Amino acid sequence: MFNLALRFTAFAVVTVSSFAGIFAHRSDAADKRPNILFIIVDDQSPFDLQIYNPDSKLDTPNINRLAAEGMVLDGAYHMGSFSGAVCTPSRHMVMCGRTVWHLPNWRGAIEAGLCPPNLEQSSMAAVFNKAGYATMRTCKRGNSYEGANKQFTVRHDATKRGGTDETGSVWHGEQVMNYLSERQTSKDEKPFLIYFGFSHPHDTRDGTPELLKKYGAVNHKDKQNLPLANPKQPALPVNYLSKHPFHHGHPGLRDEVSVSGVWEKRDERTIRNELGREFACDENIDIQIGRVLKRLEETGELDNTYIVYTADHGMAIGRHGLQGKQNLYQHTWRVPYIVKGPGIKAASRSTGNVYLLDSLSTICDLAGVDAPESSEGISFKPVLTGKKETVRDTLFGTYSGGTKPGMRCVRKGDWKLIKYDVMAGKVRETQLFNLAENPHEFLAEHNRRLPMETNLASNPTHADKLAEMEALLLAEMRRLNDPYRLWNQPDDGLEPPKPAPPRKRKPKKSR
Hints:
Blueprint: H1 2-31, E1 35-42, H2 61-69, E2 71-73, E3 76-77, E4 80-81, H3 87-96, H4 124-130, E5 134-139, H5 146-149, E6 154-157, H6 169-186, E7 192-201, H7 209-214, H8 254-257, H9 268-298, E8 305-311, H10 330-333, E9 337-340, E10 348-350, E11 354-355, H11 359-367, H12 381-384, E12 394-399, E13 406-412, E14 415-422, E15 427-434, H13 463-479
Parallel strand pairs: 1-7, 1-8, 2-10, 3-11, 4-12, 5-6, 5-7
Antiparallel strand pairs: 2-9, 8-9, 12-13, 13-14, 14-15
Helix pairs in contact: 6-9
């Protein structure tokens, strides 16, 4: 009897210990900090993707999977640029969460007290390093925030825009795959922050032979002759024009006159071929994302990883007769933005009204990490968890990388205003769109039939709305410390910023 009682007691102790172990394991799993995989591509209009444009022929099953398992934001924007290299301020904003005129690379911002010194110590990787995360980065070289990039503990940067595995997007994918393998080998249990950047689909859009064939495109290098027409090529964008109705305001702009394969041509064959090249590069990126998702599944880390997919800005490629990223139309001002992870409802969609600069505060919020005080971004975690539809009512955009003061836009609700004050006052234009009625921002040159499908700025019916949007734009320019004023705005006593000193060109090496 004694032995039976002893055995029962021992069994009870083992059983209780086992259940305690199970519950402890479950508690550990529940308390385990989430990983962050932040994917950013270079120059991609949201309208390339089927999740934003159901008519698109671009095949991206892995990006579609992220959308099906997470949330798509319909209102995500980059705030703008004071440089022709639009990606430079954009990527600074991603890394530090500062608004466009408060960035460390805006001339005089630190001296004027608009940007704190040593901001790199409060940038993305630095913040997550302090929180005990392992941080890794792969991306293109240049056009970024180098001080912030240096904070990543593992870094493999190179510009890869070729059409082979070694020279294209596969290289970036391989860096992440190798890093995940090393974590597994070393049994690294720290949560990770991986900044997974690509050099494509930025030009030169040299796709792989098999993907170029799929989209009927060629890596066109003949400036004198047009590429061959091919029925497999993507159709022209719905808001395609052969020429923008007035000068875009940046003479000699590389993206409008010098991109290999396009140059100054805007004919159907050139644009459709270039879109095919873009799609070939886009799909190659999607393939690399699929490889990483599969590895995360195999290692059991996918379910505890927040995955962000976005781009540094959009792109024109024939839309409105433009080719580059130096404009404020929706195809370029907007960016794709998808987030998948714990607590985010599958196949959900929201407006958001977010900027790329909100990314830092948001991933900090998702990870339970304190966002740096220097960040001016707003966490949109409440949007991702279904508690809010938007985080702001008004959105502002700027481009002053060409002639000054440049372009400005503002959006509130369905209404959007764009103003152009360029070419030393020779081009002064105003555009007013109702995006509910005219989501593609059709102009008179598109010859649409519906009365709202055009620029409404000169329509007296909408004079009150125009005045309201003009006042809103000025208020945003003042709030954000915009150093310029447009021709029909008060100057507010501002002195235009001094031009940047000319860059020193490195002497060419003699051959």
